[in-house]
Amino acid sequence: MRKAGRVVAEMLEATSSAARPGVTTAQLDRVARDVLERRSARSNFLGYHGFPAVICTSPNNVIVHGIPGEYVLRDGDIISLDCGAIVEGYHGDAAVTVAVGDIPPLTEKLLRVTEESLHAGIGQLVAGNRLHDVGYAVQTVAEGAGFSVVRGYVGHGIGTQMHEEPAVPNYWPGTPGPKLRTGMVFAVEPMVNIGAAGTALLDDGWTVVTADGSLSAHFEHTIAVTDDGPEILTVPG
Ligand code: MG
Ligand code: MG
Question: Angle at the Cα of 76 (from 71 to 101), degrees rounded to 5?
């Protein structure tokens, strides 16, 4: 899973660098495909319930699962780049939200706080803790900054499948959840909105947007629970 995570990190780096004004989201997908080919890795996104690309590209009010296509990035956009790879049968899954050109201070704060909320959640992935400690930590950071946490889409276990049980909510769901043990691996992925938490699904059956049209940010890592604490696997080698 470290090997898959390194490929995903390279996809994130390559697509983030390429996300400049005038570039289409289809071009970002091409950049990510090139990384997969170069590393002889397979895509876990392509063909997943018919998904047509190797990454999800989710600009501005799109929360997650945006399909790469003809959308042209503009100065002032933000865009979530969600990347995945399979190496030797094991999956990696991670996302970042980046600014395209200059963005206003409140939007910068949204990106910063969402990434901070991810790392607060990761910090709870310690053997002996309960899984829902993760969501409690994410929610505390995000709502403490005045933003809202998406409820309808959550993180997940990950291993020989991209999406495994259990779900990893980004909020306190009212129960502590399973006890964490060394060797468990999760994808933690807070989705944080400037406005309200409500979501809507576009007619393409994939694109999830904020119900109120407000901006949304999304950060994700694949993390293993180890004897030495949480180990982020989706990092460069
Ligand atoms: Mg993902
Ligand atoms: Mg995921």
Answer: 100
